[in-house]
Specification:
Blueprint lengths: L1 H12 L1 H4 L5 E4 L1 E3 L8 E3 H13 L7 H5 L10 E5 L4 H12 L5 E4 L12 H9 L3 E4 L16 H16 L5 E3 L7 H9 L4 E3 L17 E2 L6 H11 L2
Parallel strand pairs: 1-4, 1-9, 2-3, 4-5, 5-6, 7-8
Helix pairs in contact: 3-5, 3-9
Amino acid sequence: MWVIILLLQSMVNSNLLVGSQIPVLCYHNLEATGPGNNLYIDAASFRRQLQSLHDSGYRTPDPIQLINGADFPPKPIIITFDDSHAAHFKTAAPILETTGFKGIFFVMTVTIGKKGYLSAEEIKSMHKRGHWIGSHTWDHPHITGNQGIPDAINQLSKSKSTLERITGIPVIYFAYPYGIWNETIVTQVKEAGYKAAFQLTGKKMSVSPGFTVRRLLVNGSWSGPHLIHVMKETFN
């Protein structure tokens, strides 16, 4: 498992995230018959998008590549999921695996074990299957203005330690609720011990680009080819 930590830390310190940024996708709800918008995608559409990415040569980095001294894939991609939905375990992870990808799952720890959300055992299972677990705070607070995250000990530090007890390894990735960040929040996230943090499609912070990593919010109605087109425009 420490191999995974080495890979993630290498990615944070490389230009894969902070320079010529590789594509990072963001998904939320996977429903049987979702409306197909920026927050919902049905399983069949999700599978078609991932199959298009795979057929076009995109791959998520494999931890073994770092140990062997190999380079990252020619067309690397990171696929992330927010909000701890139960369908991330039941639907997203199996589709990722059958299409050859791994994901980063950002968990709100207040929801662990609640109906419709991931359980501790499901989080542990996904981690063991090679997916990565990150924090999405304790209860997804909404931030306005230049204020920091309230109750940062619970929202940042305790959510991190809770996930570390489940996975057995350091949790180094964080996703800002609603993608909102400011300099105060970035400082709080650093102080809590995270090594990188993800927003949505806003501008990166010039002095801490690894803590404002951009993500593309994927629309569930997009075809696979259209997703690739938007992705190239976004991360060009």
